Amino acid sequence: MPAATPGQRRKLLVIMEENHSTGEVFPSGMPYLWRLARRYGHATDWHAIGHPSLPNYLAIFAGSAFSHPPDCSPGGGCSYPGPSVFGQALARGETARAYQESMPQPCDTSSSGGYDVNHNPWAYFPSEAAACRAGDLPAGTPARGALAADVRSGTLPAIGMITPNLMNDAHDGTLAQADAWLQTNIAPLINNTAFQKNGLLLIVFDEAETTDTTNGGGHVAMVAVGPLVKHGQSAVLYQHENLLKTVTTYLGIDGNLSKAGTVPAMSDLVP
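Below the sequence we write its predicted structure tokens.
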């Protein structure tokens, strides 16, 4: 997987879903996501690293589960040394944004309503607090808000995270609701001119249901969408750190974030 050059300006976004195993999701639980998986690519042996949510999000966006903390709000004994992949991208001169649906204010460190801070990993790195306040934003709606504005203006970040709220990520709502949310929100991204050149969208579940503990946090779905994705499926055993390695390699900012430095990128799906 070659490193990106400034002329390529690759765009990569990660959408997080919640708490369902692959067997519940595919093929009938989320038919739209299944169509994307078959059209582009997906991993058939992807596993979360544990339960509950927070260590999985930390592994994906910082390369470490940090001793598998329980879900907790940032601060006190629940904050971690950087960098996150967002901080690393900014340090390399790239752009970074996180779009959190139903979050009341930028980089909010308290859960409320449909927003769960445990699904917002950037908020857990105090060394990046200023960057988080600037780049970790309420997503808005498909028509209005930070995400819609960046799609319309062609200013999607090099690395972006999109987190649906608790009803739309299948945590509190149904898989059908999550699938409908994806169908409404993904089309503008896929059709975006900047994304069509060399964008990559990774959709992954943080963990399976708690009864599934295979390889840590259970067998979950991971779908790769984009013009450069190798069509088909991967049967390689991957976990969340492999996703981070893929992100940093694809963007050419590979700094071997924690455990992500010792695992391969998923080059069988992403060139």
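Residues 205 and 259 are 19 Å apart (CA to CA).
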